[in-house]
Amino acid sequence: MAAILGIGIATLDIINEVTQFPAEDSEQRAQAQRKRTGGNVCNTLSVLRQFEHHCALAAVLTSDADGVFIQEKITQRGIDVSPSHKIGFGHAPTSYITLNRRNGSRTIVHYRDAPEFDLSAFLSIDLTPFDWLHFEARHCMDTAAMLAFARSMNPAQTLSLEIEKERPHLEQLFSFPDVIFFSRAFAQGRNFTDPQAFLTAAHHWAPQAVLILAWGAAGAYWLAPSNGRIHAIESQIIDPVVDTIGAGDTLIAGVIHARSSQRATDDWSPAVRFGVRLAERKIQQIGLDNLNTEATQTAKAQPLCHLDDLGAADALGVRPVNGIPSIIVVRTNKTLQAYRNICPHNGSPLSKTQRGYLIDKPDGVALRCAVHNAHFDSQSGACTQGPCPGTHLQTVPICIKGDAVFLASDSAEPENNPSLAPSS
Fold first, then answer.
1. Does a structural domain hold residue 83?
2. Model confidence over 356-384: pLDDT tens digits?
3. pLDDT range class, residue 353, cuts 50, 70, 90
4. Which of 19, 79, 294, 321 is deepest in the core (most CB within 10 A)?
5. In Å, how far are 241, 303, 411, 419 from 334, measured between CA atoms?
6. Which domain holds residue 314?
């Protein structure tokens, strides 16, 4: 596995899920709220850790409560934060995200009250253990100096750069990286509507670099520096799209993982294809956990979900098998239950998506099978209406450890249908 250093930002993401995007000057109740770590490089490293790479983060970390939360969560994932610059002032960078359940789109408001990671902090890092350095294009003059220094210290070290948006002095960065990842928003911000035309132009800015351009539902494009040839990696149709937060960061992680694991050749198509497929897997689920399904089956236990993935009365499909959730986690009346996503009527899934399991009833909520409209008591799993009276959904023993929900078989302290503390 590779040793990878990510240089950028770590944020607190506060995500509100809504049934539809609110109109201006309106009021709407969030269906669920969760608090996670974010930031492009931080997300990319979080995915790379699932593939057992050795990951370290170089960012500014604050000492306020939110900053401590960020550090704890990053460390729990096995990411080394010792290269980061820890300060005793300012508020942790925060992103307030409105996630539209209808189509998976997200709108973000950023709040920044901390300095950027700068050259002086970078120069204090021992770069020799790392195989790959991945940078966010942020404070560009300092980032350019970091890239130049890293290149002078070890010409064999792979340097990659993510350019998500326009920044002052961005052109100072182009001559150093081996790989540059561009976002569609950046290309369109420069008035390009055709990805191939953009990459042709970008090849003149950075003729030495492999250029990779994510293009949403169309997939991704990459350009070989040796001959300027452009290759297209088409995406598969994803329906429904659940959550696009971190999809671009996941694609980058997939490319870095695949490229660092393959024999060095001029053909980056396998790596870009892997990144596109991994991003497709990500947008079908909430969050960044469990993206490496093979590792999930063979390595340490992974949570089914986190408590803040669920609203006060909510249900979430998890553990997808061939794209269909196999388990439903239900939160009602301060308790959690889990059931196999199998209707006892005919063996079909109640729903093939992460949401869409609950229906409002006069006395609360019930689980509903979307195929033949069977209703099931959310607490007992008993059929209360429809074609299979007298049957029950099959329960799945679960437990809570910290803020995460696990299968009881994955824990030394099983607790069936655990109660939630009143503060949850």
1. yes
2. 899 988 888 899 999 999 999 998 999 99
3. confident
4. 79
5. 29, 19, 21, 6
6. 302-410
